[in-house]
Amino acid sequence: MRVSDLVSQAILDLLNRQNGSAEIRRNELAETLGCVPSQINYVITSRFTPEHGYVVESRRGGGGYIRITRVRVDRSTAVMHLVNSVGDAMDYPTARAIIGNLKEQQFIAPQTAAVILAAMSDRCYAGLPASARDGLRAALLKQMLLHTL
Amino acid sequence: MRVSDLVSQAILDLLNRQNGSAEIRRNELAETLGCVPSQINYVITSRFTPEHGYVVESRRGGGGYIRITRVRVDRSTAVMHLVNSVGDAMDYPTARAIIGNLKEQQFIAPQTAAVILAAMSDRCYAGLPASARDGLRAALLKQMLLHTL
DNA sequence: GAATTTTTGACCTTTTTTGACCTTGACTTT
DNA sequence: AAAGTCAAGGTCAAAAAAGGTCAAAAATTC
User: Fold this and answer.
1) What's the rounded mean pLDDT across residues A124-140?
2) If both were cysteines, with which of A43, A85, B62, B113 could B103 make a disulfide (CB 3.0 to 4.6 Å apart)?
């Protein structure tokens, strides 16, 4: 079994045992699994992505941690579907449509919708080449949508 | 639990018990919490800043003290003030402090806070040079905050 | 055998903890 | 009043404690 599978399995175990949320110490986990710490990052960035339905938060420094949360699939199905369909580029009109839809269906609060839409505005990307904007918009939208779950 | 969390908790307790204002003796508090005195300063400068919504006053010498006061202003004033104080660069820790405070004071809903915070995350700016990130973060934060009004 | 995925390790950034040394203010003594 | 003493709090930098990044090497997959 590959190291990455071990790591992945360990995280999945934790998630299952603690109904969908796991907080790990990177170095500690790496130690118990006998791998280098950065392997943990690799596994997280390759298998616990927004597309896979996970939210990852972390802090450095003393007492630091990495928290991985699996988003539950109930109302979330709609959101997850959207997140998966976003891809790696997103233009403003499409974003507006998506957000409007979510609000329409009351999956996100009006304030949330307004805030997300604000982040999609070209106003935020002044100075950036058009090419870069759509990529950022996609990343931001996915990240934000997942955090509404 | 980190020492800094203990200190922070102790101060928060005092603030709550005395509706928003606490006066402490640095050495005494350090003594009861079993930490070095300068740890108190660390916690205050890192977590009881203006961004977090606190005013701190102190006096040295015999009978010295440190007084921490939670400031309360109305919502739009607070938001406008913040928007104005955000320059053209914003780092993640500061953004976290600002958003945390807004949520704390119930100026923005938890979902809104989570969404904005998600947009501040470095995870959204993968591949971009560090220099560009802080500028984007500032633009996004301002834009989003304004849209909560 | 080219392309993709995995593994590693060297190096970086952030956050916390601690302690040595500094400054200030109130009170006492000359 | 000036000087001295002691009781606070303040500063700063080093060390420690985490996690993050990136690119080269190795292994797999097609």
Assistant:
1) 85
2) B113
